[in-house]
Specification:
The protein has 325 residues and is an alpha+beta fold. The chain is built from eight helices and 15 strands. The strands form four sheets. Strands 1, 2, 5, 6, 7, 8, 9, 10 and 11 form a nine-stranded mixed sheet that branches. α3 runs antiparallel to α5 and α3 packs parallel to α6. The radius of gyration is 27 Å and the shape is elongated.
């Protein structure tokens, strides 16, 4: 059997967003329901990053009757000035180039989640159409795309009294097995995101169900998360244990409350992303918690032993006094 020849002519170079459309599972996990909902998560994660940077307090998600989705925030808005090395507005670059964004260095974001520099461009690539509107510098900028390809230049379409970004997109039926949004799935993720981002207000409106609207907003952050988890359980102690700290390596928040159940529920997150399989952050915390509780128990036991010894001395002294009399 003759061997097939392999030469330079067999090498394929995929440009722009072509790799995403050819292998979508590499970027969003699947072309089923999981991957479909991931499109919304990527848009929301960008808005949450603005909140973590102190520039946004609200995210609105709207499901439209035609199954398109709008995600709006009141952050600083995606930059719109022209990038000299690209010759294009930053908005266009962010939406059409993989690995383009403000999360690879610099001072734009200290903490961020999602597919850094990939997320919103992947959403664009896997959408039949996408419309981006940015409110910035007192103006509203707009650009339209079809399957990741710009349908015209970015335009100024009005004046703005605030700042923020609005992304509206229609998932591509050529890519996804089925386009059907689950409000339960989205609500669970958005509720979790609101718990993790203290003070952020997130709304989900389903126009398919007559405009049904739910809101998630928790000033207590992960303390409210623990309270929510333990609602149907019997807590051993009334107050939720909570502490936070930060240094040059990062920030940490911990909330705990023991209950009478024998099965533990531990949820760990890194940059607001659920780390289902744990990681060094969770292993390190578990080791530190065990070490601290053991030390506390040993110290209490030693203190009790000293108290018992002191009580024994008092009894002996008392008996000696009685005998001497």
């Amino acid at each position: 059997m003759a061997e097939a020849a392999y030469s330079a002519k067999d090498i394929t170079v995929l440009e722009g967003l072509e790799p995403v459309r050819l292998r979508p599972g590499m970027y969003i996990g699947s072309t089923g329901a999981r991957g479909l909902h991931h499109l919304v998560y990527e848009c929301v994660d960008n808005s949450v990053d603005e909140a973590l940077a102190g520039r946004n307090e609200r995210v609105d998600v709207t499901l439209h009757p035609d199954n398109s989705v709008t995600v709006s925030d009141w952050g600083s808005g995606i930059p719109v000035d022209v990038m000299k090395d690209q010759g294009l507005p930053a908005l266009t670059v962010v939406l059409t180039k993989l690995h383009a964004g403000g999360k690879f260095g610099g001072e734009g974001y200290k903490v961020s989640g999602g597919l850094h520099g990939v997320g919103v461009s992947v959403v664009n690539a896997l959408s039949e159409w996408l419309i981006a509107e940015v409110r910035r510098d007192g103006k509203v900028y707009r650009q339209e795309f079809a399957r990741g390809v710009p349908q015209g230049d970015m335009e100024i379409v009005g004046e703005a009294i605030n700042t923020g970004t609005t992304i509206t997109f229609m998932p591509d039926a050529e890519i996804f097995e089925e386009i059907e949004w689950s409000t339960e799935t989205l609500s669970q993720r958005l509720r979790e995101t609101a718990f993790l981002t203290r003070g952020l207000r997130i709304t989900l409106t389903d126009e398919r169900a007559g405009g049904e609207r739910v809101e998630f907003h928790y000033d207590g952050g992960i303390r409210d998360f623990v309270k929510h988890i333990n609602e149907a359980k019997d807590p051993i102690h009334k107050h939720i244990v909570y502490f936070e700290g930060d240094n040059e390596q990062g920030q940490i928040e911990v909330a705990m409350q023991w209950n009478t159940k024998y099965v533990e529920s531990v949820f760990s997150f890194a940059n607001n992303i659920n780390t289902h399989e744990g990681g060094s952050h969770l292993s390190g915390f578990n080791a530190a918690l065990t070490r601290t509780l053991n030390k506390y128990a040993r110290d209490k036991a030693l203190l009790k032993e000293k108290e018992d010894n002191l009580e024994g001395e008092d009894v002996r002294e008392g008996l000696a006094a009685v005998i001497s009399v």
